Amino acid sequence: MEEVKKSKSLIDEIKLYEKKAKEIEQRAKEKYMEQVSDIKQKLGKASEEASIRAKEVIDNVGSYVKENPQKAAVIGFGVGLGLGLALGLIFKKK
């Protein structure tokens, strides 16, 4: 009789641990989903800000080119030449 009581007690304890484990799992899932949601919001905000900044830079460059076409051409030539030399050196070493 005492062995049956111990068996029932053990089964009840196992069920209790199962229930606690499920509760912990549920809380962990909720916490994970909150963090994923926060990350998505932050990435969306950063992407939006980067897009706005890129548009501003493009507008500024466009305005500069319209106001100073010769300087812009020389700057463009210099940047292109510099990048070409740098890439040439990089690929030549391989």
Describe this structure as you would to a colleague.
This protein is an all-alpha fold and 94 residues long. The protein contains two helices and no strands. The protein has helices at 2-67, 69-93. Helix 1 (2-67) crosses helix 2. The longest helix is centred in the middle third of the chain and has 66 residues, at 2-67. It is elongated, with a radius of gyration of 32 Å. The N and C termini lie far apart (82 Å). The mean pLDDT is 89.
Which features characterize this protein?
single chain; mainly alpha; elongated; 94 residues
Low-confidence parts lasting 5 or more residues at pLDDT below 50? none
Amount of beta strand = under 5%
- Counted beta strands: 0
Major sheet attributes: none
Note the gap between the termini: 82 Å
* Radius of gyration, whole Å: 32 Å
Tally of DSSP helical segments: 2
What value does the average pLDDT take? Answer: 89
- Topology pattern, helix = H, strand = E: HH
Topology:
Blueprint: H1 2-67, H2 69-93
Helix pairs in contact: 1-2
